[in-house]
Amino acid sequence: MDLKLQKLRESGLPRLLLQVRRGFLSRVKADMQQRDGFPFNSLTGSALPFIDVGGTRLTELSKKMGISKQATSKTVRELESLGLVVQSKLEGDQRKNMIEFTPEGISYMKKLHASIKKAEIELAHQIGEAEFEQLRCILRKSLDFYQSMH
């Protein structure tokens, strides 16, 4: 085994970010399941954060998620089958689809954000409040940097 390569992989930022995300979402999922059995899976975890409360156009959702319009349409249909979103045509341009939360979707999002807040509090207690806020700041600056490149 190439130990140098293995060490690079273990300390690489992409892997660390993915592992932290997986651990964080695992805590969120466990809390959501305790809340009357609300489902939380890769579908809800990967798509819902990109849908604005006031609705998001399908093409914009595709861009935010970084996937094709076809894959986004499939994801939206699955979210519709869960009763979390509805898809409608935009007034004035019947070619464009708007994705909006249903009342059930809004209720779900409120419960989801309560679980997210709980996981954030747990992490802040573990690493320290100041470090947690520093982490949030660093992630925000990193996001701003990458978004400015597009």
Biggest pleated sheet? 3 strands, antiparallel
Q: How many domains is the backbone divided into?
A: 1
- In helices, the fraction of residues equals 55-70%
CATH-defined fold name: Arc Repressor Mutant, subunit A
Number of helices: 7
- Name of the CATH superfamily: Winged helix-like DNA-binding domain superfamily/Winged helix DNA-binding domain
Write out key terms for the chains shown.
Arc Repressor Mutant, subunit A; 150 residues; globular; mainly alpha; 11% strand; single chain
Please provide a written account of the structure.
By secondary structure, this protein is mostly helical. It has one domain (24-148): Orthogonal Bundle (Arc Repressor Mutant, subunit A), CATH 1.10.10.10. Helices cover 69% and strands 11% of the residues. It has a 3-stranded antiparallel sheet with strand order 1-3-2. A hairpin with a 2-residue loop joins strand 2 (85-90) and strand 3 (93-101). Helix 2 (13-34) packs across helix 6 (103-127) and helix 6 (103-127) packs across helix 7.
Topology readout:
Layout: H1 3-11, H2 13-34, H3 42-47, E1 56-57, H4 58-65, H5 69-81, E2 85-90, E3 93-101, H6 103-127, H7 129-148
Antiparallel strand pairs: 1-3, 2-3
Summarize the structure.
The chain is mainly alpha-helical and 150 residues long. The protein has helices at 3-11, 13-34, 42-47, 58-65, 69-81, 103-127, 129-148, and strands at 56-57, 85-90, 93-101. It has seven helices and three strands.
